[in-house]
Write a structure and sequence with these properties.
Layout (H helix, E strand, L loop, with lengths): L6 H9 L1 H5 L21 H12 L14 E12 L2 H14 L5 E2 L10 E2 L3 E10 L2 E3 L12 E7 L5 E17 L4 E11 L6 H4 L3 E2 L2 E2 L3 E3 L11 E3 L3 E13 L4 E10 L6
Length: 264
């Protein structure tokens, strides 16, 4: 099997006990050329990655876990992290490590909190499986920077949010017994529209298609702008779409998902 399945098939594969038992057969299939890139990852690791992508409510991912891919050029190493990003990282780590507290360098110490390093490595692209995700930092292919990620809403429901990757980066924290590197993405998220009728504007005989309308504006920068690379669900194609009536016209962002594929 060179192509594992598209996103909907992956869900069926990972949620079915019989199919999961058959995944070990993939280790016995030789791969050549570009398809050998994921050979370093065992079937168990690939299975865990897919489960974490689709089941964020039960997965405990903080970005330090292995993933079937790599961070790519262009890159800037050992950069000083701006104060605003350090503030986001403090909140991110406190949400990821609930029993620990963190703080920026040269601030007052509270309850033996972990001091964050003020340097990180920044990357313009990321490969996950056989897919390449770009960012605003990589201006040669800005269209590849539009991604989807799953979030748990306040009411417990799960929703896909569209955003634009600003850049990928690695950041390490020094815990009492070890240093842990995290692979993260800094993403600006598009605002949701207030009306469900507008969001699900495209429908055929009351059956909504997977193209949705979102605002063309970003949410304010918050902790959710920093996520593990593992939580990126897929890419989408952005398209400006205008709805008009007799009184006025309004432009929206049409989000057209691209089915992601994993090559073996």
């Amino acid at each position: 099997m060179r192509r594992l399945m598209n996103d909907n098939q992956i869900i069926d594969l990972t949620m079915s006990a019989n199919d999961v038992e058959g995944l070990e057969l993939l280790n016995n299939r030789p791969s050549t050329g570009s398809f050998s890139e994921t050979d370093q990852f065992s079937t168990d690791e690939l299975y865990r990655f897919l489960i974490n992508t689709h089941n964020i409510q039960e997965s405990a991912i903080n970005g330090s876990e292995r993933f079937p891919g790599e961070l790519l050029h262009p890159k800037n190493l050992n950069l000083i992290i701006p104060t605003e990003m350090l503030d986001l990282l403090v909140k991110y780590y406190e949400a990821s490590y609930e029993t620990m507290s963190f703080r920026k360098p040269f601030t007052e110490d509270f309850n033996d909190s972990v001091i964050l390093q003020n340097r990180a490595n920044r990357y313009g692209r990321c490969r996950i499986g056989s897919e390449i995700f770009d960012s605003v930092m990589y201006s040669r292919n800005i269209k590849g920077s539009f991604v989807l990620a799953r979030f748990v809403n306040h009411d417990g429901s799960i929703d896909l949010y569209p955003g634009q990757v600003q850049y990928f980066f690695t950041h390490s924290i020094n815990l009492p017994n070890q240093t842990i590197e995290h692979k993260l993405a800094y993403i600006r998220w598009f605002k949701a529209v207030n009306s469900a009728k507008i969001r699900f504007h495209f429908s055929i005989r009351d059956e909504s298609c997977n193209v949705e309308l979102w605002s063309t504006e970003f949410y304010p920068i918050k902790r959710e702008c920093v996520i593990p690379i593992h939580n990126i669900f897929g890419r989408f194609v952005p398209f400006r779409y205008r709805i008009s009536n007799q009184q006025n016209a309004h432009e929206y962002l049409a989000v057209i998902p691209i089915n992601h594929k994993y090559n073996m």
